[in-house]
């Protein structure tokens, strides 16, 4: 899997691609992540990437030329081009699973007040990470990259995915580590029992209880008992 990210703020990505689990996946060649400065593709003598919008009103608008040239340069028959915008389809764990099997993603980070409408014609999909507005698509592209990279085989232990929130439509069950008793709060007996059937039952019930209390929307149309 290769992910190319087009941005006017490449520095924002440095710790993201060198630290933590994403950084390790990059070092182990489980994923290739390249950050491209849109400015490097500008044919303007001053390397301009944005200008005033026609018709007035809005502020600076990303120009089509640098982004079209970047996509022309990077795109192959295996590429999926994704535009990051709050107007896009809402991102979800299901989408992460769809994208993890693609060979090559090109993520375009929108910025400032917007991007020239013609840039939309480059995109196979437009994605938003939620109903709020960010100053740019950079954080959104990192959210999406992180959620995909952790699903690539070998990046984290397979069993970590089995019972994780959203996979079975339920939120995660509570987990505990040492000590058994901490400031008057005890680890539930059943987890210490070694009785696996009872532990599975406890965890399923806790997942269901938690989902009902916190995210009843996830249960709509489902038949959990
Ligand atoms: Cl993809 N971009 C911006 N600028 N804001 C967002 C977003 C994307 N997703 C949610 N808010």
Q: Would you write up a description of this structure?
A:
- 23% of the residues are buried.
- The protein is built from eight helices and ten strands.
- Helix content is 31%, strand content 20%.
- β9 and β10 form a beta hairpin.
- The longest helix has 19 residues.
- The mean pLDDT is 94.
- The chain folds into two domains: 148 residues, SPOUT methyltransferase, trefoil knot domain (Alpha/beta knot); 57 residues, Trp Operon Repressor, Chain A (Orthogonal Bundle), CATH 1.10.1270.
- The strands form three sheets. A five-stranded parallel β-sheet has the order 2-1-6-5-8, sandwiched between helices.
- The protein is elongated.
- The protein binds 6-chloroguanine (6GU).
- 6-chloroguanine (6GU) binds next to β5 and β8.
Q: Give the C-alpha Rg.
A: 22 Å
Bound molecules: 6-chloroguanine
> Architecture of the largest domain, CATH level 2?
3-Layer(aba) Sandwich
Order of neighbouring strands in the sheet with most strands: 2-1-6-5-8
Q: How many β-strands, per DSSP?
A: 10
Average of pLDDT: 94
């Amino acid at each position: 899997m290769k992910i190319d990210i087009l941005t006017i703020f490449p520095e924002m990505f440095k710790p993201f691609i060198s630290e933590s689990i994403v950084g390790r996946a990059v070092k182990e060649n489980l994923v290739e992540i390249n950050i491209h400065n849109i400015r490097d593709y500008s044919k303007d003598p001053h390397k301009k990437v944005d200008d005033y919008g026609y018709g007035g009103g809005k502020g600076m608008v990303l120009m089509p030329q640098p982004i079209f040239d970047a996509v022309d340069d990077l795109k192959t028959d295996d590429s999926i081009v994704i535009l990051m915008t709050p107007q896009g389809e809402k991102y979800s764990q299901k989408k992460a699973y769809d994208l993890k099997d693609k060979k090559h993603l090109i993520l375009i980070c929108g910025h400032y007040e917007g991007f020239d409408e013609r840039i939309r014609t480059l995109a196979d999909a437009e994605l938003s990470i939620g109903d709020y507005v960010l100053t740019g698509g950079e954080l959104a592209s990192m959210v999406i990259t992180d959620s995909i990279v952790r699903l690539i085989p070998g990046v984290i232990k397979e069993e970590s995915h089995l019972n994780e929130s959203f996979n079975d439509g339920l939120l995660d069950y509570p987990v505990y580590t040492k000590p058994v008793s901490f400031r008057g709060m005890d680890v539930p007996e059943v987890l210490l029992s070694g009785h696996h059937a009872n532990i599975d039952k406890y965890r399923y019930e806790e997942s269901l209880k938690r989902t009902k209390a916190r995210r009843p929307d996830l249960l709509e149309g489902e038949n959990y008992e």
